[in-house]
Design goal:
By secondary structure, this protein is mainly beta. 5% of the residues lie in helices and 48% in strands. It has an eight-stranded mixed beta sheet, covered by helices on one side. A hairpin with a 2-residue loop joins strand 1 and strand 2.
């Protein structure tokens, strides 16, 4: 079960992993999916930036992920893409990705777990453990941003959330990063 002791339930059917659920959603012609995490689940993200693995590709779909206090653990190298509308309810987001290196040193801009794609995101009563970046329309309601940098040596330079080339709305959220809260920019060329 690879860290998922009790599986994942979608529309009443139990699957062994979040990867199986993603495949089922993408193969379906339905448009509404209700997913319950029955334990902590892992998703392999692919690379950061344009190399992000596609998660939900059905642009007409609304996918609701109910965490029930469980965690969605990101592995891979840093990015999640969705073309669907994805709603996270009571999910803890944990970044355990391993980042690529750039010019012989750690590429700090890849230490944000990226949420991107042509879809949209809604986070309700979620805990965001690590630093994240959003490239898509995103709504955060009653969320707790812990802002724990994956690259500990760069903690003072990282924001709890970086809104990049998208829009984001925050309502009743808290930001615990000891150094920086929110960064907003519409373009990044690496020279900042």
């Amino acid at each position: 079960y690879n860290g998922v002791p009790f599986g994942v339930k979608m529309n009443g059917v139990v699957y062994k992993s979040i990867a199986e659920v993603v495949a089922a959603v993408n193969a379906s012609s339905e448009t509404n999916f209700n997913i319950d995490l029955l334990g902590n689940c892992e998703w392999e993200t692919g690379n950061a930036g344009d190399g992000c693995n596609m998660m939900f590709s059905n642009a007409a779909a609304t996918v609701t992920i109910n965490g029930n206090g469980n965690a969605l653990i990101a592995t891979g190298q840093g990015g999640i893409r969705n073309d669907a509308k994805v709603v996270f309810n009571n999910v803890t987001i944990v970044d355990k990705t391993e980042y690529q290196y750039e010019n012989g040193s750690t590429a700090w801009e890849f230490t944000y777990l990226e949420f991107q794609g042509n879809g949209s995101y809604e986070f309700n009563s979620c805990v965001i453990n690590n630093t994240i970046q959003t490239h898509a329309s995103s709504v955060f309601n009653n969320c707790e941003f812990k802002g724990i940098a994956t690259l500990a040596s760069n903690q003072p330079n990282e924001y709890a959330i970086w809104v990049y080339n998208g829009d984001a709305k925050f309502t009743a959220c808290t930001f615990e990063n000891l150094y920086r809260g929110i960064k907003v920019c519409d373009y990044y060329d690496g020279s900042e």
